[in-house]
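Structure first, sequence second, as always.
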């Protein structure tokens, strides 16, 4: 049965998800700030800035009027950059109601508060955090928009809500699993961007496949270690939200984080990298957040730490690699504290 679904905002990922929903026969409204972008979507069936060369389906419309976008919607999907999430959720609040399914698809954290996106949205909507779900997993917008086979996860503390989202999104090219571990899904989605930055930097330095394979493997251990210390299920990091998203983001030309890291590895300054990207690189903000989180939870994040020095303190990337390689001897299984290990094995 067709339903009205609202997607906020009309970036690359939001547009790709709107296309999936429209392909499923739903009445899809995207909210965007720019009148010119809205006209292009409605009249030319294109969103050329974010998804050039992709023709948008007829069941998809755009508006700059939040009330028009949300009125009568049974579900809202928020795909805003993390730095704009609080403002977008605040703008949504007057038109949101408790029966409306709400899931977000943003892989980042609020830098100032170190809060996850579900927390930010719940605070602004004035609802319980368990009512907010998250879409995560290996899913480049460019491939989803071209209907390439993609498999993702919808995580929600409420199984019924996860299944509602699953039913809205799932089709022949877009497979959806459910998960109850919202914390793990959000942390995995945010932290993998840091490792993708590092992978791009390694490629920019021409360090080779051995180095990148080790970086991804140790990066996953780093993500799992801090995630479990924060209360997430370690199994989430071994699934689509964790290793799946990490692999695709750290190895693909579509990845903004990989491309940004690659340019940094080639010696370009951060300001020039950001200017040339033209879109948000979530891994840069998340690296700064992870630096604070590792100190708060007293968890070692050596890859994130070295990237922090490169991004914000001007450390030469080659020196950062030398620092990682020169660390003292460790055991490979040193992924989490004994207390956390026992918690998940009892």
């Amino acid at each position: 049965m067709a339903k009205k679904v609202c997607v906020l905002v009309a970036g690359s990922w939001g547009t790709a998800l709107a296309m999936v929903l429209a392909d499923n026969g739903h009445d899809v409204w995207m909210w965007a700030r720019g009148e010119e972008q809205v006209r292009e979507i409605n009249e030319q069936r294109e969103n050329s800035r974010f998804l050039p060369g992709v023709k948008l389906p007829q069941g998809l419309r755009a508006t700059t009027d939040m009330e028009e976008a949300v009125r009568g919607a049974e579900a809202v999907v928020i795909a805003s950059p993390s730095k704009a999430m609080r403002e977008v959720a605040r703008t949504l609040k007057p038109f949101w109601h408790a029966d409306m399914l709400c899931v977000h698809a943003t892989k980042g954290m609020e830098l100032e508060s170190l809060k996850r996106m579900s927390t930010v949205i719940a605070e602004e909507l004035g609802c319980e955090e368990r009512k907010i779900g998250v879409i995560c997993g290996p899913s480049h917008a460019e491939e989803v928009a071209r209907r390439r086979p993609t498999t993702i996860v919808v995580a929600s503390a409420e199984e019924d809500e996860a299944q509602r989202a699953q039913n809205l999104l799932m089709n022949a090219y877009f497979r959806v699993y459910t998960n109850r571990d919202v914390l793990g899904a959000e942390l995995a989605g945010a932290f993998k961007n840091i490792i993708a930055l590092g992978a791009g930097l390694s490629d920019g330095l021409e360090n080779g496949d051995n180095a990148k394979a080790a970086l991804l493997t140790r990066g996953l251990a780093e993500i799992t270690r801090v995630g479990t210390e924060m209360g997430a299920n370690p199994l989430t990091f071994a699934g689509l939200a964790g290793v799946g998203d990490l692999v695709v983001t750290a190895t693909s030309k579509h990845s903004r984080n990989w491309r940004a890291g690659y340019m940094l590895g080639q010696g370009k300054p951060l300001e020039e990298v950001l200017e040339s990207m033209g879109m948000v690189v979530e891994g840069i903000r998340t690296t700064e957040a992870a630096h604070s989180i590792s100190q708060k939870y007293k968890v070692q994040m050596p890859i994130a730490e070295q990237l922090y020095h490169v991004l914000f303190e001007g450390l030469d990337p080659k020196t950062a690699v030398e620092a990682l390689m020169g660390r003292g001897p460790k055991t490979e299984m040193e992924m989490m504290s004994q207390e956390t290990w026992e918690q998940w094995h009892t």
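Margin note: Residues 54 and 146 are 7 Å apart (CA to CA).
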